[in-house]
Amino acid sequence: MTMGLHKFIYRTEGVEAVQPLSDSLQSVERALHVVEVLVHEARPMSVREISEQIGINRTTAHRLVATLCACGWAERAPDGRFQLSVKFLAIGHVVNHQRKFLDEIRPELVRLSQLTRETVHVGVLDRLEIVHIDKIETLERVGVSSRIGTRGAVHSTSLGMALMAAQDEDAVERYIAEATTIDPPLGLADPDRFRARIVDAHARGFTMDDEDDSIGVRCIGVAVRGPDAQPLFAISVTGPSPRFTRETALHHGPELVCSADRLSRRFGYAPVADGKSVA
Fold it and tell me: What is the mean pLDDT of residues 196-222?
């Protein structure tokens, strides 16, 4: 292949052709949109569905999908629809070794900690428990004592509630059904209160642990989503309740939401409006 300033030469089926560079870039952009849609939906899709999601005609969508299949990046599912190929598994494996997950998100966590002057935690779900996997210490002389690897009940922590609030109602009910069968502190004693707090989180945009997990400690949390809109992990701002008052926590909530939104978009999440993903 030779590349010029305005045109490039490509070969397909033994025929050399010249295509304007602008057309080529548009084709690449549209092909990447097809990939993004398949990642976001996390299921096989028909050409019609793909064309409607991207907003292009079906002929163009079919050409793009056929090109991805010919290059080995997409394939037909058993039902005849199209899905990403296993090549993307290999890419994920390589990227996972080249770039460390926590290193990638740390700059945003540091920025959030500097803004709020409180401790920022990262947590993931492990069945009925939330596990702290990273943290940024407060800039204040007095902070909240915590350790990476610490576990807590999902329903009494802002991180855990944030991860549950980011899932659908069925997932919440499955958690309730299991959590109510075990003893405290992991056991859930008041399902209705937990449901109400999930509703509050949806309305407010973030969750609040108002000294539920530990007396003297207040937290707010938000989930970070992946390409399929499912939560990957949650981040929280935590401080001693005399300093990190309810008013202060509510004040910093929108900034926490913005941080989670930036991280979600970086991990491939695209909010959906009117049936189409929006950047």
Answer: 91
